[in-house]
Amino acid sequence: MLELLFGPLLVSWAPAILAYVQQNPWHVISAILVAALLIDWMVNDRSSGCCDGGLDFGSGDGDGGGD
Question: Which domain of life is it from (predicted)?
Answer without folding.
Answer: Bacteria
